[in-house]
Amino acid sequence: MVAEPQAPASTSTREFEADADRATLPRSASTTGLRPTLLILTAFWLYVLCSNVLYAYGMTVSLQALSPGRVFASWQARVLEHVFLYPVLVGCVLLSLRLGWQRWSAVLLQVLLGLGFSILGTPVLVTCQYLVGDPFVVKQANSFAEFLAGPGPTLWLAGATNLELTYGFGLALVTGFALYRRFRDAQSRIAELERAWSTARLSALRAQLSPHTLFNLLHTIRGHITWDPRAAQAMVVQLGDLLRRLLSAGERDFSRLRDEIQFARLYLELQQKRFADRLTLTIPDSDALADAWVPSLIMQPLVENAVVHGLAGHESPVAIRVEVATEDGELILRVTNTRVPANLVSGTGIGLRNVHERLAVQFGARASLKATAVDDGTWVATIQLPLLQDRPKIDRQAP
């Protein structure tokens, strides 16, 4: 036997694998949005600038009451300092977002970035004082030993500590925003996957119903071909109408209530032509029903079960009644059939399981299916679901 060559991966599969690969990479500023990051950093840095200038001005006013002279650098020098430090801040934060925190080496680089930014504060401020012609607050040292012996290291350390905390707050703000965006995108992706999963599951359930229904109807017509060909021909015409409705209902999630009842009527009338002396039907008039929407093909398994289990195992007449009622904003669909007491019906068939799963997918706990024996001679299946008077938005129309 010659092995068949494997087909290349589909486009959707390759896209999914690419998304999975990207999910394992560090998050860069491009993935979180460069523009929002810059806006956050700009607003944060303007706040830092204003707070520093106001603090220095307030302290200067307070100290001048005690002794003449100015201790803090001028506001022009401080504004220029923050202008020079701003691109450094942006570069460090963007690089930090690209590095991430997954590895110890990345954590070490993050610490070095913070230290590198913080130690620039005092040299940049001194340079800015030169540029604006501001007299130095601290006397300049002529040598490195003189610098170490003076107040320079203390002031440098104080400025670096302040900038380190400022950088940490800014990085935490941007990182928090990036994490929020990732969480929001993940929630949207989960919602999309849940909708796609629900759609695929409903399509699979409807695909199980269609061949199951067709098989039962063809078996019914086969019984008429040999002894009543004219009746079989009429049933074939009805079957064509039923299949056309079946295909139309299978292309959407919801159908009008009157269409579902008409579909059930066609099916039951086909069965009645085979069991004319045994089957009695009571079906509400479709035109008199409320203008409501129900899941497509939701009643078909119930009427099939009523026919199959009602007629099974005996030759007595069977009465099938379809009822529709509304109560407190809920729609109630009920199918009742008579049976012999000895004919116990199991409520775990494929049809009832499909109905239960579809109601769970589309309505959750707001809908229910109950199938049980009322007494020894009557079986009742009841669907209770919200009354939908408008077309549900999740309904997909066929092209």
Give a concise summary.
With 399 residues, this protein is an alpha+beta fold. It has helices at 11-23, 29-32, 34-64, 75-99, 104-118, 121-132, 144-149, 152-225, 229-250, 257-274, 300-311, 350-363; strands at 254-256, 279-282, 293-295, 318-327, 330-338, 368-375, 378-386.
Describe what this molecule looks like in 3D.
The chain folds into two domains: 28-191, no CATH class; 228-386, Histidine kinase-like ATPase, C-terminal domain (Heat Shock Protein 90), CATH 3.30.565.10. The protein has twelve helices and seven strands. Strands 2-4-5-7-6 form a five-stranded mixed β-sheet, with helices on one face. A two-stranded antiparallel sheet has the order 1-3. The chain has helices at residues 11-23, 29-32, 34-64, 75-99, 104-118, 121-132, 144-149, 152-225, 229-250, 257-274, 300-311, 350-363, and strands at residues 254-256, 279-282, 293-295, 318-327, 330-338, 368-375, 378-386. Helix 4 (75-99) runs antiparallel to helix 5 (104-118) and helix 5 crosses helix 8. It has 399 residues and is an alpha+beta fold.
